[in-house]
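FAQ: What does a ligand-bound record look like?

Like this one, built around ISJ:
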Amino acid sequence: MNSTATPDTVTEPQLAIDKTVHCKDMAEVRKHVDALDDILVPLLVERGGYMTQAARIKPTQGHVRDEDRIEFIVARVRARAAQEGGQPDVIEAIYRSMMEAYIAYEHKEFDRLRDASTD
Ligand SMILES: C=C(O[C@@H]1C=C(C(=O)O)C=C[C@H]1O)C(=O)O
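The answer part, i.e. the structure of the complex:
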């Protein structure tokens, strides 16, 4: 520590561009984006599985959308994005849109699970 109580080594977050491999053309950029999507999609599918579980556990359709939980997630992922050297506003937009899609899916899953149980 120095006299102003600032840590001697302040670790700045790595910038998004510093996480990438330098590309010479768009084909290379797209190859890397496709490779990342191959990681992201299975994770999003797995996340969707928890929406099915939420649909099973929640007592009514009125419980599917939970505004407090949405705002908690947004605050959490914004902080995480900043920590990673990313853009909190971009991550927030992605998350809000993703959660809307999952809420619609959860509504459908809620009905599907209950319809099936009356067969
Ligand atoms: C899964 C839930 O249901 C909804 C879906 C959310 C999500 O995609 O993370 C968040 C809040 C809810 O409106 C939940 O309540 O946690």
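Follow-up question: can I read anything off the structure? Yes, for example: The chain has a mean pLDDT of 92.
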